[in-house]
Amino acid sequence: MTTMELKSLKMDLVEELLSLNDKEMLNRVKNYLKRLKKMEAEKEMEEITKEEILAGIDAGLKEVKLSMDGKLELKSAREFLNEL
After folding, report:
1. What is the pTM of this model?
2. What is d(CA 79, CA 84) in angstroms, rounded to the nearest whole number?
3. What is the pLDDT of residues 3-32, one digit of tens each?
């Protein structure tokens, strides 16, 4: 969507909002927009990119290599669970 199309859509929405004269309806629209924003924010937080997944795998494999070389001491599963 181009910038002009986005601005036009926003203006249409503003005009619709300004035409509403019912307080309850305006509150419902406001609450709905808040829920949409919250859902969008949660969705963005949940999405993990391919690069982030690969970076996590790479970091884990490097830790395993360092541990196998004796350069890094890892926690036991029991120590890890005790931290939780």
Report:
1. 0.47
2. 9
3. 999 999 999 999 999 999 999 999 999 999
Give the number of C-alpha atoms closer than 13 A to the C-alpha of residue 54, restricted to the C-beta side.
3
Q: What are the b/e assignments for 63-75, b being 16+ CB within 10 Å?
A: eeeeeeeeeeeee
12, amino acid identity: D
67's CB contacts (< 8 A; 6+ apart) are 73, 74
| Token representation of residue 13 | 């929405």
- The alpha carbon of residue 55 and the mean position of all alpha carbons in its chain are separated, in whole angstroms, by 18
Residue-by-residue DSSP string for the chain: --HHHHHHHHHHHHHHHHH---HHHHHHHHHHHHHHHHHHHHHHHH---HHHHHHHHHHHHHHHHHHHTTSSPPPPHHHHHHH-
